[in-house]
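Margin note from the TA: students keep mixing up input and output lines. Inputs are the sequences; the output is the structure of the whole complex. Example:
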Amino acid sequence: MSHPVAPATGDGRIRTPLPFPTAARAAVADPQLRANLHRATRTIRAKRARVVDEVPDWEALRDAGSAIKADVQRRLPELLEQFEASATAAGATVHWARDAAEACQIVVALTRAAGADEVVKVKSMATQEIELNEALEAAGIAAYETDLAELIVQFGEDTPSHILVPAIHYNRAQIREIFQRRMSDAPADLTDEPAALAEAARAHLRRRFLSARVAVSGANFAVADTGTLVVVESEGNGRMCLTLPETLISVVGVEKLLPTFTDLEVFLQLLPRSSTGERMNPYTSMWTGVTPGDGPQTVHIVLVDNGRSAVLADPVGRPALSCIRCSACLNACPVYERAGGHAYGSVYPGPIGAILSPQLTGVADNASLPYASTLCGACYDVCPVKINIPEILVHLRQQAPHPPAERATMRLLSWVMRNPRRWAAALRLGRVGAGPLGAYRERRTGARTLRRLPWPASAWTRSRDLPLPAPQTFREWWGKQ
Amino acid sequence: MSARDEILARLRTALADGPPPVQVPRRYRRVDDRADLVDTLIDRLEDYRAVVHRGLDALPRLLSGVDRLAVPTDVPADWLAGYGGQLHRDAPPLSPAALDGMDAVLTGCAVAVADTGTIILDAGPSQGRRALTLVPDRHICVVRTEQVVGLLPEALTRLDPRAPLTWISGPSATSDIELNRVEGVHGPRRLEVVLISSGA
């Protein structure tokens, strides 16, 4: 008889090394980065809106997607056992990893067992999360990213800044410069035309694909009733890695399960339209264990917890595990658009990262991320599986540690606001106190705002303007009418 | 305790609040009875810059410029009528390097989805193994009109989940550079679809 085991938080690249406001400061001050981000997010928002509008049953698909994921979370242990049995019966070997370090150890050991000292990689959030490339390198194994954007980021010795388009923060001229500097076989006359840059990447990776012996991938979906894994991509690098090598190792977060093969009919409609704004992504690969004579003949699946059990343990925060990594919330978010992905520290940036990362690590270790939002709700509107991100953000803010001065201020505010007479008096007092200042600012600048307050309130105005009270309140105006 | 047992125990503890059962509302469309499915498929394929041809008669012209052609072992003989170039059947299996030297590959498919412009291969008749349609730079794919369905849910009911499945929507493409869609990265840079009527 086993006794209860507590859910555990995770480790890896899901932690903000600096508080979000500090990390965001450089990005917000970089006009090139802001221009790149603005253009990219605006483009993809428009594309997504166009292809979502042409689907008459979009809301019904979202409702189904949301419910299927809630069902998965409720039945996760039994579905994982079912997945393991189906995949094993089909010829795959299933491994389990409690945390990032254990997952990396498993992949290193499997790669060595295959007699390889290099692997080709399909873009995967899970392997970034567990910092697999670093672990492979430490073990003397070279890991080659094969997705164009991941290749750019790897060459640039940078980290991804977006879930779907990791190099969204670079423009074509910057990418050309990185290729010329780092790609040994880049053409001498390489232009910054996207087609020319893609062609250079093709030539660079071709030989590697044809000779690779071990590939490492993630999976977008893992189907419990059949043991099938699904990878969704565009370039064909995924198909190359999933088809040509002898050994395939797929690192899969435990939350990626779907109960049945039929459920793919919902998610393969929701994902491409939400992520790239396409009716369907160019390539989707599905494999179930080993197919004799076709594709990898040794197939390993590493199921990873790394904090997911801790997320599951919070009934309010649990729906964060429904995320299908489409990144629609990043592209809709006014904070992401200005701060970019690096400010979030974690491999999961944007609104979903602001709820997922603190839950994976424990809120105390990522306390600034739930504040990296205006709570405008745009992320909830576009989420294909209806994750109520604002609700979870507020819930996590309540759990984060608050300084004593802030707690005292909030207690005072709560006392004032509980009583209408106290509230009206406080507003009157504020208006009278700030009245001359407001009139002065309005005469000078045309706006009743302050740029900065004296310390300690300067912490508030460092990234915001402070609006001064209006000359009269709406209630006062209404009373006079 | 093994990692497996520990993770399962953690997850069971995490669910101690006993979430209620979930009814999945499946109010989305599962069948499309549009009459113009083939026209929709063509429209969507062309939107992704695949090139569409109609009728088996288009094949000899398409193949006339192909010097080295890879085919699955069971490709129908009438698809190759009059082909004068080097024909490479995939038996014994062609090496990746050999496939890389092909000018084109000619296959059939299992299902095509009109709504999304998607062609699905399941390694069934006249499709061959996965590498065949991946490495050559040009993929010529024959789609019979009775293989065309309207919506994705209809396609899934026709597939065997245990078969290796490759879904193709247009040629290889990337949107990684300033979100511009560029056709042709690692997969076939040209996708040509030949639509033939039932029984043809």
